[in-house]
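Following the same procedure, sequence and fold were stored together, as reproduced here:

>
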Amino acid sequence: MEESQIDDLSISSKVASAGIKAQTTCLRIISGNLANADSTSEIPGREPYRRKLVTFRSALNKEIDADTVKIKRIFNDTTPLKSKYDPSHLGANAEGYVQILNVNSLIEMMDMREAQRSYEANLNVILTSRSMVSKTLYY
């Protein structure tokens, strides 16, 4: 394998590493959403936890002269909250309604699975690149 090919493998590893870092952040956010899926505010009139979302962007890494993925933004989902009637709840308003969160565990699990697959794909790129470089050095 030529030196330029080894450099290409190094670049692919760095691009994949950026993907792993971005998906790690995404998995952390999804985990927080799932951890709060059943929470409500204990204070009347205060909003409960709001689902957080992650968006990605492409960013030029000048060191390797290649585009990598970065976190663009982490923000609260602005989907309207639903209310349920539960006058005995600590967070119930004067009419007896409690705001419930906008976290759907099924959607979070699907998002988590997607992020996990992307993480694994990027990890496989790194492992394959290392294996190829290792085999090249021994032959």
